[in-house]
Amino acid sequence: MLLPSAHASKQFQTEVELLMTVCHKNLVSFIGYCDEGPNMGVVCEYMANGNLQELLSGKLSWKQRLQVAIDAAQGLDYLHSGCRPPIIHRDDATHVSTRVVGTPGYLDPEYYQTQQLNEKSDVYSFGIVLLELITGQAAIVRSNVNTHIVQWVSPMLEGGDIQNIVDPRLEGDFHLNSVWKTTEIAMARVDPASIQRPTMSRVVTELKQCLAMGITGRTHGKMKEENEDSIEMNVMGPSAR
User: Fold this and answer.
1) Residue 211 pLDDT more than 50?
2) Distance between CA atoms of 96 and 84, rounded to whole angstroms?
């Protein structure tokens, strides 16, 4: 619930009107809202399967991780390409808003120079999430010196050390080419220059190729079982945190 200023109240109404138009299977559904007196709040669908951080605290297979990534990418692609105006996930309203509520480690580095977010800002944030799915690490890797996940992955990737990049909880049960391609996809999305980052539509296509590799190919350690349980993952709505 929020205590509104005049500006916040207008912004809230704009966002509610926008959320009423959003409908996608991989996005948390908007149920209703409260705007009575000083109280403002949005009611969204309950995430029965938990959030991504909770899922990663368990033991997801490589195939399940890729499916989660594809589901999230499809949700973001819908926000960018299927909504008018386009919705920026890490924005608090629409694509023209500049007030950011972001989490350290996920925010587009260009924002610090431009004070603006766009679709490519979401692409960067998604690249960070994809690296988390690959490595099992948080966006800020906790060690003697806290390190951003991009800086943690980069030297190992340059040295061809994919084994130490991949989450050890996978126990070698992954298709090597699929992991390599997925890591390359993630690193392309976190390019410091937004103009170099591909669209979410392209992300979806490339991740589906990675999933196909993992299903049809031999895993690093053993053959993959075809009857793995699936994980259905909804991503948060454009203003949820």
Assistant:
1) yes
2) 12
Every domain of the chain with CATH number 1.10.510.10 lies at: 52-216
Amino acid at 178: S
Torsion angles phi and psi, residue 29, rounded to 5: -75, 140
215 residue type, one letter: I
The tens digit of pLDDT for each residue in 53-111 reads: 777 777 899 999 999 999 999 999 999 999 888 888 753 322 233 344 567 788 999 98
R_g (Cα) of the chain, nearest Å: 19
How far apart (Å, rounded) are the C-alpha atoms in residues 99 and 91? 7
Q: Dihedral, CA atoms, 67, 69, 75, 79, nearest 10 degrees? A: -160
3-state secondary structure of 136: coil
Residues 237, 28: contact at Cβ < 8 Å? yes
206: confidence class by pLDDT, cuts 50, 70, 90: very high
* Whole-number pLDDT of residue 220: 56
Q: How many CB atoms lie within 10 A of CB 39?
A: 11
Element (H, E) at 36: strand 30-36
> For residues 51 and 27, what is the distance between their CA atoms, to the nearest angstrom?
12
CATH 1.25.40.10 applies to domain 52-216: no
- Residues with a known catalytic role: 91
